[in-house]
Amino acid sequence: MKFQGYRRPDGRIGIRNHVLVIPTVACVNRVAMDISNRTGAATFMHPYGCTFDAEENRTTEEAFIGHGVHPNVGAVLVVSLGCETASGSKVFDAIKASGRPVERLVVQKAGGSRTTSDAGVEIVERMTAELAVQPTDEGDLSELIIALECGSSDAFSGLTANPAVGEAADIIVDAGGTVILSELTEMVGAESVLYRRGKTPEVRDELMRRIKAYEIELSMSTEDDSGVFISPGNIEGGLTTIEEKSLGCIYKAGTRPITEVVDYGQQPHEKGVIIMDTPGYDISSVTGKIIGGAHMVLFTTGKGTPSGSAIAPVLKVSSNNRVFREMPDDIDISAGDILEGTKSLRQVGEELVDLVMRTARGEKGKAEYFHIQEFAIPNVSVLRKEVIHAEMVKRNDLSFMQ
Amino acid sequence: MPVTAILIRAQDHVATLTGPVAAGDAVLITGQGKTREIIARNDMPAGHKLAIRPIQEHEQILKYGEVIGEATADIAEGGHVHTHNCWGVKARRHS
Fold first, then answer.
1. Residue closest to A311 by CA, chosen among A393, A264, A270, A372
2. A123 and A259 in a common domain
3. Among A170, A213, A357, B2, whose CB has the most other CB atoms within 10 angstroms?
4. Which stretches are annotated as coiled coil (chain A) (predicted)?
5. Residue A381 domain-assigned?
């Protein structure tokens, strides 16, 4: 299945040709937003200020770079404050190395916020004009990476929307394409299925190791005997065990073999079904998959959510027709006909692939219309480190410090 | 028109209700195989599960074709399957 897209110097194809304004610290969010509002350029709000945690800082820089070199991005303006811990010049250099047009403004040197915004508008307008004459190139579904996500789920998510997305995932993978499933916390309890699906012993072991690590981490903060439990809302909705919840969740990734397990934000080398190690917070999870190069997101929801991304369409799939009717601004497609018995899972799966192709061909998703641009990255908080440290002391195991 | 309950895999022991039912109501089991009717034994909200065949204590309960937990009591056909009679194998609450 073909579409016209934008071929990048690294060979990847984009389905959008955004000019992206990247604020490298929260202090300049407003400047970046002002440039975006005045030009229509894509941007996001950086959620944090400076960080003195090396891992967190690296994740932050990699998140900016991953957005800057994303196939849906044609040109980039980096807006820095000047004294932040995330290196604006490192971000600039990495994007420049990708062969894209990129410029950088430093607010502390460019004359302050308003002057920087004026200069930014000029740069973005020039970049937009350059991108407008870029010739398109033919792309194929096999070149696309589709991220899979769920948020604001209900009792029917695991019954309609997730399995329908699973049908779509099978069609996409059979066509040579790639899907990414993430949120390892949501896989605790579904290990046996995931183990069977691992393509190689390495993939199987890697996945089991990472899921176990989340289970141990969770056991430090829950009162349950194995550290995993489901919320009272889940139980009220009819979910009985963690196994049931996780099985419904991983259903999104269909039934094909799992070919690779990647770190947060890492670009997959393999095609097929990829598992990304992300936290169980949907915005952060979506952001990680986009950093890893996902072109768009199929996002299942039971109660409805407006969630979107600055550079990739986030298509909302509702588990029931009521939410589809009540949130027409945000829901792109409903899997609710499966509940009403008028459509099969396979039919809705085919409709989803059709939606993916229409989106690849330029049709805007609901979140794109409203310029919804969520952005979140994992925050390795001091608190969490303290909790881990205390647990290690309790277990009399400080080997990690040596 | 009876409320429907969706059977996800043919080998599953439970089907998920698409609407609320009262004890004694007929429930239409759809999704896999031949559609058939089962009488609900309990009042159950939408999204909850009913047994589509008798389940014995200690039997592993299947949904999605996989084990979701273990029966802690005998469950009759049409009975409500939830935390009162099904425990996770993975995680058990102390209460």
1. A372
2. no
3. A170
4. none
5. no
The pair of structure tokens assigned to A69 is 């070199």
Is residue A168 situated within a structural domain? yes
Here the CATH number for the domain that contains residue A81 is: 3.40.50
| Domain ranges, residue A85 | 18-133
Q: How would you class A338 by CB atoms within 10 Å of its CB: exposed for 0-12, middle for 13-18, buried for 19 or more?
A: buried
One-letter amino acid for residue B82 of the chain: H
Of A156, A251, A341, the CB nearest to B64: A251
Residues A204 and A256 in one domain: yes
Q: What is the ipTM of this complex?
A: 0.94
Identify the structural domains of chain B with CATH numbers, from first to last.
Answer: 3-87 (2.30.130.110)
Nearest to B89 by CA among A341, A393, A62, A226: A226
Residue pLDDT, tens place only, B63-77? 998 999 999 999 999
Q: Measured between CB atoms, does B82 come within 8 Å of chain A?
A: yes
Q: Which of B68, B70, B94, B95 to mutate to test the interface with A (most CBs of A within 10 A)?
A: B68
Domains identified in chain A, total number: 2
Tokens (6 digits) for B89: 């194998």
